[in-house]
Specification:
10 strands; 3-stranded antiparallel sheet; 231 residues; 7 helices; 38% helix; single chain; alpha+beta; 5-stranded antiparallel sheet
C-alpha cells in the first residue's frame, strides 16, 4: 500500500508485470489475459501471469526484494497442469513427441509433415482448452506460412464445423497458426479430466488428418510464398 513501492515496481523494475494504466487501461486484454488495476494506485496495472506456480513465486520474491520486504511463498498445491499431461498420456497414449515431463499449458507435437507443421494443444487457463495447427520452420517466407495457415483454417471450418471454432483466420494466420477448436472446461476438478483428454485426442486425430492430407503441391507453393492473395 506504499505508493513508493508502486514506483519501484514500474518501468524497468518488473516490466512484464507492472505497467502504467495510461498505457494499458484496467480491463484491457493483452494476449489472453486482462490487465488488473492496483488497489489504491490507479496509475498502475498488473499483468497476472507467472507461467507456473514456481515462476509466480519467483516474481513475488523479486517484487519483495525491490520493496525491501521479505516475501515467503509456500507452494501448497500440486502442479495440476503437469499432472493433467501425465494423465493425458496414460489414458490416450499421448501424441507424437509427447514426453512424460511435459510442463506448462502450451504444448506442441513433433513435426507432422515436411514443412514442419505441428499441432498445438493448450491447457493452461481454467476457462477453456484448444487445439490448432502451428506453422513449422521450413517455410521460406512469412507470407508463405500465412497462406498455408489460411488453407488449414479453411479445411478446419469445412471438416470440423461441429466444434466451437475461433473465427479470426487472418489474425491467427499472421501469427503462424490456424484457427483453433476450443472446449470450455474446468481442469481444477480432475473428475473432468477423462472427458477433456478424450476430446483433445479426438480433435488431435482430426487435425492430424488435415495436416497430413493437405495437397503437397499447395504445401510446396505455400513454403515458397507463391500462392495468391488471401480473400
Amino acid at each position: 500500500m506504499d505508493p513508493a513501492n508502486a514506483d519501484r515496481l514500474s518501468g524497468e523494475a518488473i516490466t512484464t508485470n507492472v505497467h502504467p494504466a495510461s498505457t494499458y487501461p484496467p480491463g484491457q486484454k493483452v494476449r489472453r489475459l486482462l490487465m488488473h488495476a492496483v488497489p489504491g494506485h490507479e496509475k498502475y496495472v498488473v499483468y497476472p501471469y507467472g507461467g507456473s506456480f514456481e515462476g509466480a513465486a519467483k516474481r513475488c520474491r523479486a517484487m519483495g526484494k525491490r520493496c525491501s520486504v521479505d516475501v515467503e511463498v509456500q507452494l501448497d498445491r500440486p502442479n495440476q497442469i503437469q499432472d493433467f499431461w501425465r494423465f493425458f498420456k496414460e489414458h490416450t497414449g499421448g501424441v507424437p513427441g509427447q514426453k512424460d515431463g511435459w510442463k506448462g499449458g502450451n504444448q506442441w507435437t513433433s513435426a507432422l509433415n515436411t514443412a514442419g507443421d505441428r499441432i498445438g494443444i493448450y491447457f493452461g487457463i481454467p476457462e477453456k482448452a484448444w487445439l490448432y495447427v502451428k506453422g513449422g520452420r521450413a517455410y521460406t517466407s512469412a507470407r508463405g506460412r500465412k497462406m498455408k495457415m489460411v488453407q488449414y483454417s479453411r479445411m478446419i471450418c469445412d471438416q470440423m464445423s461441429d466444434q466451437q471454432l475461433d473465427e479470426d483466420v487472418e489474425k491467427e494466420a499472421g501469427e503462424g497458426r490456424s484457427i483453433a477448436a476450443t472446449l470450455p472446461r474446468n481442469y481444477e476438478n480432475d473428475a473432468n479430466w477423462f472427458a477433456i483428454a478424450q476430446w483433445m485426442m479426438d480433435q488431435y486425430e482430426r487435425l492430424e488428418v488435415i495436416v497430413k492430407s493437405s495437397d503437397s503441391s499447395l504445401e510446396a507453393a505455400a513454403r515458397q510464398g507463391s500462392l495468391g492473395s488471401v480473400r
